Amino acid sequence: MKTQIFRFAIGIALIITALYKPPAVQSVKPLFVDAPTNLTVTGTTNTTITLSWTPVPGINGYWLERAESMSGPFLQAGNAFFNTVITDFGLDPHRAYVYRLRAVASGNASPPSNMAVGTTVTFEFNQVQSQPIRAQHLDDVRTAINAVRHAANLPAAVWARDPLNNLVIRASDVQEARNRLNEALTVLQIPVLAYQDPILNIGITPIRAAHLEQLQLRSTRGSSNSSGPLYSNNLSKAIVGEFAAPVYLPLVTVHLSVLPNRKVLFWGRDLVKDANDNIVTVTTGATAGNAKQVTGHSDAWLWDPVTDARQQVNNLTTNLFCSGHSFLPDGRLIVTGGHGHSDFDGAGEKHINIFDFTNNSNPWSRDPNQDMNLGRWYPYNVTLSSGEPMVISGHYNETGIAGEQETNLIPQVVTAAGTLKNLSQPASISNYPFIYVMPDGKVLQAQSGFGSQESRLFDPRATQARGSWSNFGTMQSPHAFGTSVLYDSGRKALVVGGLDNSQQTLTAAEYINLLTAQSQVNQNQQPWTSTDSMRFGRVYPTATILPDGKVLVTGGVGCQGINNIESYASAAGGIPICSGGQVLNPELWDPHTGEWTIMAPHTEIRAYHSVAALLPDARVVISGGGLPGAIGEIGIEGEKITNPFELLEPNSIGVAHKTAEIFSPPYLFDPNGNLAARPSITSWPSSVTNGETFPVGASGAGSQPRVSLVRLPSVTHAFNQDQRQITLDPPLLASGGFWVTAPNSPNQCPPGIYMMFVLNSTGVPSIAQFITIKNSVLLPNDIPETNAIGGGQTWEQGIEFSSAVPGQITHVRFYKAAAEPTGGHVGRIWNSETRELLAWAAFVNETAEGWQEAQLPTPLPIAAGVKYKVTYNVSNVVAKTFNVLDYPILSWPLTGWGSSFSTPAGSFPSTGSTSNLFADVRFK
Amino acid sequence: MRRSLLVSIAVVILTCGLVHAQERVQVVEVNITGIGKIKIPDVELRDHEGRKVHFYSDLIKNKVVVLNFFYTSCVYTCTMQGRTFSKLQALLGERLGKSVFLISVTTDPVNDNPSKLKAWGKRYNVQSGWTLVTGEQAEMNKLLAPFTGNGAGGGMHLPVTFVANTSTGRWTSAAGIFTPEDLLKAVEFVTR
Questions:
Q1: Which of A144, A192, A669, A713 is the S-S candidate for A219 at Cβ 3.0 to 4.6 Å?
Q2: What is the pTM of this model?
Q3: H-helix or E-strand containing A716?
Q4: Do A6 and B10 touch (CB under 8 A)?
Q5: pLDDT for A11-67, tens place per residue?
Q6: Chain B residues near residue A6 by CB distance under 8 angstroms
Q7: CB-based contact, B26 to chain A, within 8 Å
Q8: Neighbours of A864 (CB within 10 A)
């Protein structure tokens, strides 16, 4: 690398020395500078590209920009210079580069010139008309053509005869090369000129050197009619998908959730406006001139993306901007925190708001007696395998003075009683940290914006159910303001994009295997592994997992800086050192190959405060961006935003991308680009428990259907909380459908409502139906920490429980200590209030230690909300964990309210305990 | 992406040398974990007492330093960084100003003159051993670009902190709001 820089520097120096002319004297600073024209590639080698252009009179110099595709970003490739020829040195071989040029005068830069494309491929022969054609000659041309296709965001050509392996080149090969090159030239808006022998008759026209030389020339240099950046191309939708036209929404969707009634709930950032709809500013204090923000209120909307129906559902207690949110297992949305001060950011609200989609007249509710410990501005939520929402991080400001915000270090869970329980705190925590439930029920916190490269583990069951934190490896890159998603049915997590520590946007992607990470950490190995990088660097992209397990990364911006479609050498703005950073093409990542494919472009910039979410019809909505706009965007006062000091002033904060664009991923199209025939789900159960095998009626799903569950999306600030996709084990076919089994563990599939998709063998998904996954036992993860001796008496002991939904108890369970005699145990279920014994079963074939399970003679129906006790008899030694039932334990829909015991065995246990006494049921 | 930046820097330095030879500054190249090689110019600055200092030769060279970037009118991340440095002073105790030095560089040299730096420093109880610096915008652009990726200009920025032992050439850096304990660990890391 160092050699390349050196070579490049010397090259530029020589050219500038040779061609240096004093700049024209300019007495008046020009307002507008004409763009250079006719930017042309005049020569290429495998590491250099030489360009020339028509000069612009009366200017101080030129500025060269280079991009690796027609979509940008265009980064500065040469400083101001005065000649009209430049050679760009030190390039990578076998790549096509896209150039633009700006004229510079007195600190103003012109609009860009036309784009020119050059390819760093050298060919084995030149200008020898009589030389026999060999396979290598066409191979080199193919390399150059694929480089040009890459610059045009087209996939590499698939050749009919490949490899050529010394085959004789036929007319069909040359015609194919012309066709694949022409596709790219058309997309790049480079005129496609007539070829010599325009019709190559297969088997008749002899292939001559001239044919190949023409391809060499046209695949290594070209001038576009466009100044770019260009995003559109005409590829088949089966490869790149398709965006529908933008739909206007009433506000910027900073926060967006997809509800179980197929509607989308969103809210944004509420600014105070005057009667003329102008933004009101703060007049005094440290933030004078910044936009005044609303407190105690959020405009919010419901939107049906299929019918386009809308309904305003404002929240009247809390500004929900910069809150966290996730779904409770029953489908209500819990929103934690929000924005608490009119004059500045970072003063988080303590409020917890609930949105109940089943309540049409009054969906929002807030219990003022159940506020969080401190405010939270930038928290995230994660639903534990119990179904409890855990909220983590966020800023609060107790003094009311701008700048005196602190980090809320104490994570909390909302318990089954509706109360908040404080958890163990880490030494420090980043804002909006990426968090996930791992396959063992622990919580991974990966790095996120405003954080370090360290990842950490939270064990919610440790320290008497207050949890504990431990280090979990250093990531490969910082990824500040990148995005992250669980994939491989929750077994792996991907982190991609963002910024490195010098604010360069990253293309880098890395993953962690959550099944093996703990043992890697134990052996002092780093669990984070790089995978293929994206094509575009992106800050604030959003990752969305699709029903087929692929990951779609949308939005974000690519120029250096926190949120830049242009970046400049100084705050004064001036000439951009990077431009065209609006990355309008999503990229689709295939976890099986690690490869990224560029998707069709959307229309609007989706930078900071943009979102993306999977819809129940398997399309993806992307939306939002703005509040403030990106650096380089035009502000609402018509001035370009160049000064990051002014982001919270009206010109920049007023920028609002109030549109949604809906993407149809490639899986919705057949190979011809027509809409593919989709399977449909004709019958399904509304809820099932872990491990339950259940019937699904389906049509059009073929002989090898796949069933995919996707958690309801709830997304903000580049991260979709609780997002996970699970491919179920292959179904067993039956008449009119199939049987399929829900995941065994709530760690893989935390309780709640999922979109269930059926995919056919080619991966076309159905429209989703909603299914609630319930936990089947009260204690899926717990292991007793200790044993206690009975003291010479027999005991009856157990746990009081209830269910949030009606159902049946099919089994009783207990955890047998090794020292407890084997055999003779009976499980009993009582009505807690009437003390009536409702059902019992004797345990048979007991093992020495661990969970024992006995089936009830007939399943016992239980009502929602009624308290029961499940108990068992102990003759000598009991397995238990002290002091973990001071708060009720949830395993949704089951709640354990507390333990109790009595002597002798067989009596109704009446003495209360906060220990976990390890009695359990199996529920369905 | 990375290669483009480095190529650009090389060009900037070289063309500056040709066109404006008198502005050539001494440049020191360092290798920073996680970032790679960057070139630090030894630009002339003013500290919060108004004294002339050279960034590399006076503040950085042969020292253990903790370096961050802020601006005085900032009401968000810089205030949290300020409180962290303030507490770090206490944690360092005797080492502050003897073996370990804290440096905060303004990203807003146009507005942040030495007296503004001093007033800001008073809020955070700046002790001897913590130096706040500003300078001419053009010079500051040269200084800030390699560290923050941008020229002068505050506003929304990545709160990046560098910790270095320039005697041994050991550098580390990370973006984020750190606790004083985090930074103390980093100091111990580079002095090991």
A1: A144
A2: 0.88
A3: strand A714-716
A4: yes
A5: 333 333 333 333 333 333 335 788 999 999 999 999 999 999 999 988 888 989 999
A6: 10
A7: no
A8: 11
